[in-house]
Write a structure and sequence with these properties.
There is one protein chain. Helices cover about 65% and strands about 0% of the residues. It is mainly α and about 600 residues long. The chain has 2 domains: about 400 residues, Sodium/glucose cotransporter; about 110 residues, no CATH class. Strands 1-2 form a two-stranded antiparallel ribbon. Helix 7 crosses helix 8, helix 7 packs across helix 15 and helix 13 packs antiparallel against helix 14. The longest helix has about 45 residues. It starts with a helix and ends with a helix.
């Protein structure tokens, strides 16, 4: 095994830079929020809600732009059967940020929530919040694991060092500065991460383009030279699959705590929207060098390079095309700078997912579901422990399981199919309740898992219209096997069925209980008849005029306790900087006085 000293030095410098910035951000903001009386735990989760446009724009862009994004975009452009037409991530995630900014950022930020799960617990109660935490947690953990797994593979290409060692070191650095500084460290390291990617890749592109082994990429875009044109095409039979995948990226990219963590840390609702739009532009800009590198890979005569005569796609290394192009088509100093930047970027992508998972657990599961009397110090310690536990879990999965990408695909599908329709329901549809939410959860999960997941060797038990069987080489065993391919847009259909199921079952349950068709004593989820009873204070209902029931109609409730619990979701100081329309809404206290 040869160790490239220059490569190791380059990576060490970038890692050190990220670590120093993370620790500096933690030190600089250690007293942030104290003057306004903000809890330390809330400062760790949403950065004292004072993230400005510059840092905010970078950190929002880094929600999706990381190692997986730039490597994946280059891979799809390079793959002969896909090409640019199937590299959906740049436009999909950019539109996801636009849709999130237009419709979701303002209501979430203006209501002063702390995590994405807050509105679910407010409307559906703590038990349902706990159920919705499961797909959200799986998504964050598997995303981190997939990122770390990709990092290990990338580093092994560059410096030929042990994959496991590189993954563990990277994870430890990310966990350390996240533990120390919370969202501030994550946000400031995101700035460095994006600048590193941008400079590192743009320095490399001109050298790779002018390499003698590379043909004119404008020619290879439309003509077959070394492989089919990299522009790609969408076959008639694949149209619905393409649409399904695009909707998954565009709409399924919204209901993630990593996104809402940034939205909720913005200094106002309008800022949260502006940051989303800035990030959408940032996503497109950051994809350009990746697309060019994928195109360069498709336009290269590998026989003329140090890589060898067999192309990466034939060695099953298409997913590593970006580090391969940087290493074999650029001068050593350029390649190590580019690869050092990319590896540092990948490492920095894992931090926000780990912080997101621990934020949701500490607040929505530990504090609101089990220990509402927990002190701020206690919640901070729970967060620190879970950052370490979830970080360790993601690292372990990256090292041990070869199916981490399959788990990530499936869990991101479940976030789209289960959480997205319920997020629409809690924010925009009046009258949905816990019965509808449970039904929607089951509908979505059944319809999605029923479609199977070839990557995990999970056969379907629901055969949607247009399904076919294809022979594929399994990525782990290398054996040929028959795989059922669903050509129907079943993910988006599952999402719509989940949404309609929520609305239909909610209104049906409401009608049956309120009309007396079913006795009130059977309202075992306390979701319709007993919605405001003293027994279910876990509902933590927001009391705002014209939106919820007034306190005088809530006889069994202790007024002071209802105010305290509402305050768990809505901090009055978060509303100060909002629009006049939002200020007109009564705070829980004022509703109490009105009565």
């Amino acid at each position: 095994m040869t160790i490239h000293v220059e490569g190791l030095v380059a990576i060490a410098i970038f890692y050190l830079l990220i670590l120093v910035v993370g620790i500096w951000a933690a030190w600089k903001n250690k007293h942030s929020g104290e003057a306004e009386g903000t809890n330390r735990s809330e400062t760790i989760m949403v950065g004292g809600r004072d993230i400005g446009l510059f840092v905010g724009g970078f950190t929002m862009t880094a929600t999706w732009v990381g190692g997986g994004y730039i490597n994946g975009t280059a891979e799809y452009v390079y793959l002969p059967d896909y090409g640019l037409a199937w590299a959906q991530a740049p436009f999909g995630y950019a539109l996801s940020l636009v849709v999130g900014g237009l419709f979701f950022a303002k209501p979430m930020r203006s209501r002063g929530y702390v995590t994405m799960l807050d509105p679910f617990q407010q409307i559906y109660g703590k038990r349902m919040g706990g159920l919705l935490f499961i797909p959200a947690l799986m998504g964050e953990i598997f995303w981190s694991a997939a990122i770390l797994s990709a990092l290990g593979a990338t580093l092994s290409v560059i410096v030929d060092i042990n994959i496991k060692m590189s993954v563990v070191i990277s994870a430890l650095i990310a966990i350390f500065y996240t533990l120390v500084g919370g969202l501030y460290s994550v946000a400031y390291t995101d700035v460095v991460q994006l600048i590193c990617i941008f400079i590192g890749l743009w320095i490399s592109v001109p050298f790779a383009l002018t390499n003698p082994a590379v043909s004119d990429i404008t020619v290879t875009a439309v003509k077959q030279v070394y492989q089919s044109p990299w522009r790609g095409s969408i076959g008639k039979n694949d149209t619905w699959v393409w649409i399904d995948n695009f909707c998954l990226l565009m709409l399924g990219g919204i209901p993630w705590q990593v996104y809402f963590q940034r939205v909720l840390s913005a200094s106002s609702a309008t800022y949260a929207q502006v940051l989303s739009f800035l990030a959408a532009f940032g996503c497109l800009v950051m994809a350009v060098p990746s697309v060019l590198i994928g195109a360069i890979g498709a336009s290269t005569d590998w026989n003329q390079t140090s890589y060898g005569a067999i192309a990466p796609k034939d060695r099953d290394q298409a997913d590593m095309i970006l580090p391969i192009v940087l290493q074999h088509l650029c001068p050593p100093f350029v390649s190590f700078f580019g690869l050092g930047a990319v590896s540092a970027a990948v490492m920095s992508s894992a931090d926000s997912s780990i912080l997101s998972a621990s934020s949701m657990f500490a607040r929505n599961i530990y504090q609101l579901a089990f220990r509402q009397s927990a002190s701020d110090r206690e919640i901070v310690w729970v967060m620190r422990i879970t950052i370490f536990v979830f970080g360790g879990l993601a690292t372990l999965m990256a090292l041990v399981t070869g199916t981490v990408y399959g788990l990530w695909y499936l869990s991101s599908d479940l976030v789209y199919v289960i959480i997205f329709p319920q997020l629409i329901s809690v924010l925009f549809v009046k009258g949905t309740n816990t019965y509808g939410s449970v039904a929607a959860y089951l509908f979505g999960m059944l319809l999605r898992i029923g479609g199977g997941e070839p990557y995990l060797r999970m056969p379907p038990f629901i055969y949607y219209p247009g399904w076919t069987t294809e022979q594929r080489i399994h990525h782990m065993t290398g054996e040929m096997e028959d795989v059922v391919v669903q050509k129907f847009p079943f993910k988006t259909v599952s999402m719509l069925a989940s949404f309609l199921g929520n609305v239909a079952v909610s209104y049906l349950a409401k009608y049956l209980f309120e009309s007396g068709k079913i006795s009130h004593k059977y309202d075992f989820l306390d979701a319709v008849v007993s919605k405001h009873s003293g027994e279910i204070m876990d509902k933590t209902t927001l009391v705002t005029r014209g939106n919820n029931i007034g306190l005088s109609e809530m006889a069994p409730v202790k007024p002071r306790l209802s105010v305290t619990l509402a305050a768990a979701f809505k901090r009055r100081d978060t509303l100060a900087a909002e629009t006049v329309e939002e200020e007109d809404e009564s705070s829980p206290d004022s509703s109490h006085h009105d009565e």
